[in-house]
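Reading a protein record of the kind used here takes little practice once its layout is understood. An example of such a record is reproduced below.
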Amino acid sequence: MESDASSLPFRNENHYVVNMSDRHYDICVVGAGAAGLAAALTFAREGYCVAVIGHAHAPRDGRTVALLDGSVHLMERLGIWEALAPHAAPLEIMRLIDDTDSLFRAPVVDFKCREIGLDAFGWNVENATLVQVLADAVQAQSEIASFSSMATGIGSQDTVTPGSHDQRITISLDDGSRIAASLVIAADGRNSPMRRAAGIRARSWAYPQAALTTILTHEREHRDISTEFHTRHGPFTLVPLPGRRSSLVWVTEPDKAAHLRHYEDAALARVIERQAHAILGKMVIDGPRGVVPMSGLAVDRFRADRLALIGEAAHAFPPIGAQGLNLGLRDVAALRDAVVGTDGGADPGSAAALARYDRGRRFDVRSRTLGVDMLNRTLLSGLLPADFLRGTGLRALAAITPLRRMMMREGVSPRLATPQLMRREASSVPAPL
């Protein structure tokens, strides 16, 4: 896959690799989480020679991902939805319940997918399963090389061949080797070494919260309803999984989350039942547990010379409204559109392509980061004006159908143009087996 262009089975004749002392690829993805693996598959699908740096592993700690409609279409087009579908459950209703005991307590609000013409808002799957399926697909692609070493820095840019306008950027690995690429995609998380090496400033903040995660079985059917209780310490969310199973994301005080993590299974199940007001009946813990500190991150730009940020290297916020990974997958699809749509994609790391990507991501990422942050802070504040505004907003959503539908569409898809691979045209999502 590396160095010798004549041996590579490229589907797109515009992209090529030349002989050189460093291993050279069209695109190098740093980070082997869900966003990074999806990026590798997306660009290999376009005929680029791709390298992935990092070890693909996600612990089974109870965390799940609600893949919204556009993300499901992306998975389908990448050829992995068939493998994911048996492990996923549809989300047909998103139910919000004000459990703050506020003076301005809002009514229950149901967002129903049928109101905006969808069979499901999305599908919920365990994060570890998603990463494993993506990793298997990457390993099966001859256009993708995988390196388990860690990236330690970015080197200088050089021309690929004397007199050529094509540029490359080098990445140093912890085993002493180097990789060169025309474009580096930094998908290496919120503490991204690539972001720091590229000199992109990031602002981070912490919330006085942590999320307890686990998997539950329960005696009542969830009926494909995701239920989010808004409590004074954050959302308590039950999200459907196949069968009489659900995933739990309980955002609460850090000390409480850490304490709950060490409860015996039966005792923890009883506490969760009470917090859920027994809506799913008797519960049993059916998986490992995790505790995730809640924090946020925003960057001042989404690109540098021959480098693009995606996923949590570019944005992070609390797990409210299933926006996190879906936003990262939209980064992937938007970067693909920017690269392929600029000069036919001949130079994937061109300044024009990355400027187009940067412009396109600003509104989508920043508006969603702000929206999630504001909602979370109103829950934490306990101030009557904040409660009034939140309660009034939820009452309006419950009562005004056009407003509710607009919010549902905005939550599932961006207000601006949806990236091509996430559009519904000519796509059908198969039901789980």
In short: Residues 64-128+206-294 form a domain with the D-Amino Acid Oxidase; Chain A, domain 2 fold (CATH 3.30.9.10). The chain is about 30% helix and 30% strand. The mean pLDDT is 84. Residues 88 and 125 are 5 Å apart (CA to CA).
